[in-house]
User: Which sequence fits this backbone?
């Protein structure tokens, strides 16, 4: 069971949303491989000490978004087919959320659009330079 | 459902058994320690020292050691039969020096003294192991049962004191539960009674062979004694059913208060109107007081023995105490039905 | 699994109203947290649910049926303080529970007691407060009942055992039981409970699922150029629980649609608009103490 699934009950983000984000992140980072089995709802609930229905809700949403699939009687698995797209999509979700948060944060301290773009450019140049 | 009540009763009976055990051992020790003082030979030597007394020792075929003492001058003739473990008999024949009852029969426990008169001679027979009516054992054992009834007398108060969340969340309605609790205590009281009878007989056996006579009225004496005790228990249960903490005081003061009520019902405080009224009030209260149906005779306990003050005999108290038993049980159960945690 | 329906219950002790027209429905199979300050009426509600006190008004029903002796076969209750018998051993309590209830599993009780580090041979008077609570929890869980009602089940327990009790409740819920519990530890309620109700001074102050409450309730903050902007439209808006102004800073506590309100503030000329998440403790405090300022939350965030 990937130890990377942690939740913070005291944060204002509902636990099921945290779980969804954590699973997507694990898939994007390759910690959860395609076809790998997730813990059962009950097991994960006990491991994290959270309500089982919260875990069930997270799993349902993840299935709807195509990140995992549930086979009745067998358990829940990271989608094997289309693993590339699903992990990229998952990664894309995680990244998009992070970038949106960054932009809102920048806006809340009063930066203008051009200033934010400059910051984005700087960050891109630093971390993701153009291929030569 | 009443596991806890069984445990409580078991603990009380264990204590009672231990106490009786200690008394038994004590009696055993006393018997051997004081054997020298009550010994047959010491008694004989004391009497034979009178001048002019002739002493004769005979061994009877059944093993009895018979000593015959005769003092010609006093014209006193004493026969002492020592049956050993089975008891002793002393027959004294002497000239009567004063007018007294021609016949008397006094019994104290297993010792009986029978006096009779034949013309100028009076005969006194002392028997240390006369037949003992079983009713005496019943009376003592009922006293023990009374004590146990008082100890167990606050079953509901004990639950009220912080345990209602367990006691009242069981799959049983309150009334059956309350009745079951009282039934367990009742079994404990009866069990204690049996224990006491066995213990008394056992202690008796240390000193001499038990010579018990069970009469046809023993069953009545036993039944009415038991119902009386259970009525006392039910009375205490009703008095404490709604209490949480102060039930110790209720149990402790119960005896004196009941006794005072019973005694005041006896006293003829007649004369003044107030006196008559008070007397009447206490007579009514005595009807409801189980203790006023007890009898405290030291001698033979028979169906005709008067009770303390309730104007009944041992025979007639059975219906009254049964009514009280039912009344107080109902009062206790009704109260507990309405208790809140 | 039972649905518990509490319908307009009322209880007063003399002139003191402990519970005042309180209604809540606890769906079967959920973990339901009952929150509230001390004296809010939580324990009185539990006692009323179990027939331990008589109500002045209202009803409590289990699957539509009023409480009957047979219902207790399906309910396991852990009260707030120790109701065990001081003079008996823990083992004797196991015997007692076994003799009273059919579904009780003594072996499970012994295992749970070992996990809580309670020696079953000890007499209850030799146990600490936390161990007594743990014993009551162990006996209740080993009943494998449909409904578990726990009043402050973690009080007196060290953090490890607190987590253990929470896990037991979660396990019971996974088994399909209805779990109703009260706790002052909001963090525990946040984890384990699916739905909560907040009681304050005998009344229902707030009710809902934890996820919906946390998802919807936000503080929307904006800084206006002047401190006299009209806030009338916000005061009339039913979605807003609170509208505070602190100089040029305006803070709205909303039940829902936080992004819409953020956009509105920006549209009105505010800058530095941000949306602040609220955790369950914040939500609880707002529900029970009107004096709490939105600033207290935002600055502390």
Assistant:
């Amino acid at each position: 069971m990937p130890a990377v699934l942690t939740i913070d009950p005291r944060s204002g983000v509902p636990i099921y949303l945290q779980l969804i984000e954590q699973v997507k992140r694990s898939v994007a980072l390759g910690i959860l491989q395609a076809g790998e089995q997730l813990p059962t709802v009950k097991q994960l609930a006990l491991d994290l000490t959270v309500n089982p229905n919260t875990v069930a809700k997270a799993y349902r949403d993840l299935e709807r978004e195509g990140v995992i699939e549930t086979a009745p009687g067998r358990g829940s698995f990271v989608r094997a087919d289309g693993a590339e797209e699903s992990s990229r999509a998952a990664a894309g979700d995680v990244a998009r959320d992070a970038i949106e948060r960054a932009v809102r944060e920048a806006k809340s301290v009063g930066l203008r659009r051009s200033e934010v773009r400059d910051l984005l450019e700087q960050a891109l140049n630093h971390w993701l330079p153009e291929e030569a | 459902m009443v596991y806890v009540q069984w445990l409580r009763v078991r603990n009380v009976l264990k204590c009672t058994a231990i106490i009786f055990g200690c008394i038994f051992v004590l009696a055993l020790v006393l018997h051997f320690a004081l054997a020298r003082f009550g010994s047959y030979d010491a008694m004989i030597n004391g009497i034979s020292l009178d001048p002019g007394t002739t002493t004769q020792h005979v061994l009877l075929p059944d093993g009895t050691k018979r000593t015959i003492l005769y003092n010609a001058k006093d014209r006193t003739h004493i026969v002492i039969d020592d049956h050993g473990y089975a008891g002793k008999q002393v027959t004294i024949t002497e000239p009567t020096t004063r007018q007294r009852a021609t016949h008397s029969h006094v019994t104290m426990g297993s010792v009986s003294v029978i006096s009779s008169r034949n013309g100028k001679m009076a005969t006194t027979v002392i028997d240390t192991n006369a037949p003992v009516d079983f009713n005496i054992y019943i009376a003592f054992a009922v006293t023990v049962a009374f004590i146990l009834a008082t100890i167990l007398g606050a079953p509901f108060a004990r639950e009220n004191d912080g345990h209602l969340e367990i006691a009242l969340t069981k799959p049983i309605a309150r009334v059956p539960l309350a009745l079951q609790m009282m039934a367990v205590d009742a079994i404990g009281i009866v069990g204690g009674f049996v224990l006491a009878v066995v213990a008394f007989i056992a202690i008796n056996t240390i000193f001499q062979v038990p010579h018990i006579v069970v009469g046809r009225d023993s069953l009545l004496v036993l039944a009415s004694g038991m119902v009386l005790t259970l009525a006392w228990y039910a009375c205490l249960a009703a008095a404490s059913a709604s209490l949480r903490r102060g039930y110790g005081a209720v149990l402790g003061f119960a005896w004196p208060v009941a006794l005072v009520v019973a005694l005041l019902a006896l006293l003829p405080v007649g004369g003044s109107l107030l006196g008559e009224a008070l007397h009447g009030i206490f007579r009514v209260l005595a009807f409801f007081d189980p203790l006023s149906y007890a009898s405290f005779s030291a001698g033979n306990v028979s169906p005709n023995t008067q009770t303390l003050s309730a104007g009944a005999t041992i025979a007639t108290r059975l219906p009254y105490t049964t009514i009280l038993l039912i009344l107080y049980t109902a009062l206790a159960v009704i109260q507990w039905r309405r208790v809140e945690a | 699994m039972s649905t518990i329906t509490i319908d307009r219950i009322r209880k007063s002790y003399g002139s003191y109203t402990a519970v005042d027209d309180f209604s809540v429905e606890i769906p079967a199979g959920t973990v339901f947290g009952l929150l509230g300050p001390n004296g809010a009426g939580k324990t009185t509600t539990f006692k009323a649910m179990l027939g331990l006190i008589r109500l002045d008004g209202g009803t409590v029903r289990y699957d539509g049926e009023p409480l009957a002796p047979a219902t207790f076969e399906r309910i396991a209750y852990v009260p707030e303080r120790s109701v065990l018998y001081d003079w008996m051993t823990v083992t004797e309590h196991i015997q007692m529970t076994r003799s009273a209830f059919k579904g009780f599993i003594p072996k499970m009780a012994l295992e749970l007691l070992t996990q809580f580090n309670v020696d079953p041979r000890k007499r209850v008077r030799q146990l600490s407060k936390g161990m007594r609570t743990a014993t009551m929890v162990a006996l209740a869980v080993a009943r494998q009942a449909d409904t578990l009602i726990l009043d402050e089940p973690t009080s007196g327990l060290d953090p490890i055992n607190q987590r253990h009790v929470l896990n037991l409740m979660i396990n019971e819920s996974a088994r399909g039981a209805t779990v109703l519990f009260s706790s002052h530890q909001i963090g525990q309620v946040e984890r384990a409970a699916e739905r909560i109700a907040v009681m304050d001074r005998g009344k229902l102050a707030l009710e809902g699922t934890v996820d919906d409450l946390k998802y919807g309730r936000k503080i929307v903050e904006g800084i206006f150029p002047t401190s006299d902007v009209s806030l009338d439209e916000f005061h009339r808006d039913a979605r807003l629980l609170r509208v505070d102004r602190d100089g040029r800073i305006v803070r709205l506590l909303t039940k829902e649609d936080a992004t819409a309100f953020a956009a509105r503030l920006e549209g009105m000329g505010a800058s530095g608009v941000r949306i602040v998440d609220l955790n369950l403790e914040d939500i609880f405090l707002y529900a029970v103490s009107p004096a709490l300022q939105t600033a207290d939350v935002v600055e502390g965030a």
Remarks:
- The longest helix of chain C spans residues 159-175.
- Chain C has two domains: 4-209, 217-300.
